């Protein structure tokens, strides 16, 4: 093998290794969100079975009556927080990532407490009140 072919082959292998490593690190940062739980809003509330939330870092809830999905997170103390997955900068749907929520439109980032970690958003996420009764988590949807 001549020097030129050797260098070309070596560069291709390095590039493939870099792409593989970069892809792996990007995917490691993503939360393997469970399937989206589809339900409806009834009397300004969404009901979610508690067993659906067991072992989930974040559960995504979808209801046709809401413009955006809702993320439910189990807190370490056993309570629940529910956030509207709408960027407060430009009302764009948010994606769940390893350390919070990301707006793919302008790059705003929010932590799992709904606080802004990176702008251009300056306001925290809309948080809904929650309560537990009869084996269900109830999320109160407000206008």
Notes on the protein architecture:
The chain has 143 residues and is an alpha+beta fold. It folds into two domains: 1-30; 37-140, Rieske Iron-sulfur Protein (3-layer Sandwich), CATH 2.102.10. The chain has two helices and eleven strands. The strands form two sheets. It has a seven-stranded mixed sheet. Strands 6-7-8-9 form a four-stranded antiparallel sheet, with no helix packed on it. The N and C termini lie far apart (70 Å).
Brief overview, please?
With 143 residues, the chain is an alpha+beta fold. 21% of the residues lie in helices and 31% in strands.
Q: What is the CATH superfamily of the largest domain?
A: Rieske [2Fe-2S] iron-sulphur domain
Low-confidence stretches: 13-33
Structural class comes to alpha+beta
Instruction: Record the strand order, biggest sheet.
Output: 1-3-4-5-10-11-2
Q: Span from first to last CA?
A: 70 Å
Q: Judging from the principal axes of the Cα atoms, what is the shape?
A: globular
Rg from alpha-carbon coordinates = 20 Å
CATH topology of the largest domain: Rieske Iron-sulfur Protein
How many helical stretches? 2
């Amino acid at each position: 093998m001549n020097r030129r072919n050797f260098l070309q082959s070596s560069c291709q292998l390095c590039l493939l290794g870099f792409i593989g490593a970069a892809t792996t690190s990007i995917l490691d940062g993503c939360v393997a969100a469970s399937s989206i739980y589809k339900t409806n809003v009834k009397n300004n509330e969404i009901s979610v079975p508690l067993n659906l939330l067991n072992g989930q870092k974040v559960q995504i809830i979808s209801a046709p009556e809401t413009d955006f999905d809702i993320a439910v997170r189990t807190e370490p103390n056993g309570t629940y927080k529910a956030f509207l997955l709408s960027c407060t900068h430009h009302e764009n749907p948010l994606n769940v990532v390893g350390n919070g929520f990301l707006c793919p439109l302008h790059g705003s980032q929010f932590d799992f407490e709904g606080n802004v970690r990176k702008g251009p958003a300056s306001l925290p996420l809309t948080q809904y009140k929650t309560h537990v009764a009869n084996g269900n988590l109830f999320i109160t949807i407000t206008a």
